[in-house]
Every structure is written in structure tokens, then in C-alpha cells.
Amino acid sequence: MDLDVFVSAHRAEWDRLDALLRRRRLTGAEADELVALYQRAATHLSLIRSSAPDPRLTGRLSRLVARARSTVTGTRRASWRDVTRFLGRSFPAAVYRTRHWWVPTALVSTAVAVLLGWWIGTHPEVQSAVAAPGRLRELTRPGGQYETYYSSHPATAFAAQVWTNNAQAATLCLVLGVFLGLPVLLILLENMLNLGVGFGLMSAAGRLDTFLGLVLPHGLLELTAVFVAAGTGLRLGWTVVDPGPRTRRAALAEEGRAAVGVAIGLALVLFVSGAVEGFVTPSGLPTWARIGIGVVVELAFLAYVYVLGGRAARAGETGDLEAADRSASVPTAA
Fold first, then answer.
1. What is the pLDDT of residues 124-139, one digit of tens each?
2. CA-CA distance, 334 to 331, in Å (whole number)?
3. C-beta separation of 256 from 233 below 8 A
4. Which of 104-108, 251-255, 290-294 has the weakest average pLDDT?
5. How far apart are CA 318 and CA 72, in angstroms?
6. Among 39, 45, 83, 102, which is least packed by CB within 10 angstroms?
7. What is the dihedral of CA 51, 55, 58, 61, to 10 degrees?
8. For residue 327, is it left (φ>0), alpha (ψ between -120 and 50) or beta?
9. pLDDT, tens digit, for every residue of 316-333?
10. For the chain, what percent of residues have pLDDT higher than 90?
């Protein structure tokens, strides 16, 4: 592309678009002209970026197109309608769409944790490598650190701390997924290692029932949220490798926006699991009641994803922003 010729051919259109944007009132014909010029300027910007990138010209056209888009689409404030759409359609649909990633992730990770726990629990030499015998007794005895951990702080402060830590872990899985998913696998391994060590040590001490009674009430929902975050992160990483029929840039933008929505939704899910961990796990309720609460909360989340999310996904919801809130897609060829 001869950039000078291109600029000479279209400068008048850009100047006209700029002039229309400066006016406070437009006639019907001028509004139609503004829309047409905006669409053509967006196409010109795409052509310049792909064929003859020039920083100054690209900057000028980018600002012009952004102003025109703002004028054409108007500004919109967030409303309760947006919250309803997010919770009722966008978030559950995004989680449902990634089920082929996070369900296998959950199954494999759980199997790794169980196998690791079995290995530690049945091999005294491995237990000795984890900690000294006195330290192990302190961890696993009745009233030991595994039991008192959940009641060592006021429930409200503990729930807030747990929520913060888990939300950070989930966010890391989502953000780092773009690096081909490798950091996500390391985060998962660390979580399963911690779970497997506790499982194995308490099993070797003959107190596996106590351990499960402490972990399951909040752990079902908490681990599901971590698995969803990991699966979404892995999907985002795979998008780098295989963007499908979309351009890699468009695919990453779409999946990235959906991942941000998942991160926000999982923060709410982890708030619920943190509340269960802070108030239910250390409570004086019978073990069956505490585990029952955890099972009910987990089943409610799965029903939310598979019923509401499945219905929304089949209706075309992807978890991305609404079309009016996304950047316009423009042709890459004249």
C-alpha cells in the first residue's frame, strides 16, 4: 500500500467525520452520513494496521474512530439489568461452555490428590520425610492443628481471609492461563499436594473421618471454583495455540473478556464457600449436618451452571460482553 496515496484519497472523509463529531446537533441526513463515515474510517484503520502501520496516522484514526463509536453507540451506564444478565445468563453460560475443560480437570486433580494421600498414608518413610514424628502427632491428634485451624480465628475474619486467598488463586489461574496454561498446572499441583498431604497424614493417624468432616463442608464448592478457574485458564491458553476460525487476536479478546466475567462470578462463589468455611465447618453441628450443607451448596451451584448456564449457552450466550459494548469488528480487506 502506498500510504501517501491512501491518505490523500481519504483525508477529506476523515476531516468531514471530524467536523460532524464536533457539531452539537445533526440533521437526519448528517447522522446517516456520520455513521457511514465511521464505518469507512474503521475499515481504513484496519487496513493501515495490517498493511502499512504508521504510528502517527494509526493514532489519529484510532482516536477518530473511538470518538465516532462513542457518538454512534452512545454511552450507557451499568444498571440492575446488567447485574441480572450477568448472574442469570453470562456467568453460568461461560462456566457451562468450559465444562469440557474444568470437569476433566476436576476428575484428574481429585484422582491425583487421592493417590498422593494413599501413598503418604501407607508409607511411613514418606510421612517421616514430610515432618518429624512429634510434629506429625501435633498436626493429627484430637484437638491438633488440623482440627483447630478452622476455629483459630473469629469466624468473620477467617471467612474474609479464606475468601481473599482463594479468590487470588482463582484469579491467577485465569490470568496466567494465557501462558499456554503451564502456570495453571503448577497452581493445581500445589493445591492437590496440600490436600493429599492432609488426607494421607490424617488417614495414617486413623482420623480420616475427622479430616473429611472438616474439609467437605466448604471444600466441595471451593475446589469446584478452583477447577472452574483452572479449566477456564487452560481453555484460554489453548486459544493461543488454536484460535479456530477466528483470528488469534479476536479469539483471545473474546475468550479473555469471558474469563474476566468468570473471575468476577467465581469471587461470589468463593465468598459463599468462605462463609461456609468460616461459620459452618468449625460449628458444633453434627458431622453429617455440616457435610450435608456442603453437598447442598455444591449441588445448587452445579444446577445453576447446568440448568441456567446450559439454557443460556444453547440460546447463543457466550459469556462475552453484549455486542453494543464490544469494539466493532471491521473488515481486514477492502
1. 999 988 888 888 888 8
2. 7
3. no
4. 251-255
5. 25
6. 83
7. -150
8. beta
9. 888 765 544 445 444 444
10. 23
> What's the Cα-to-Cα distance from 163 to each of 39, 167, 245, 281, rounded to whole Å?
45, 6, 38, 14
Cell of 294: 456442603
- How far apart CA 40 and CA 47 sit, in angstroms, is 11
Residues in the chain: 334
- 64 vs 299: CA distance, rounded Å: 50
- Measured in degrees and rounded to the nearest 5, phi and psi for residue 311 equal -65, -45
Residue-level pLDDT at 156 = 63
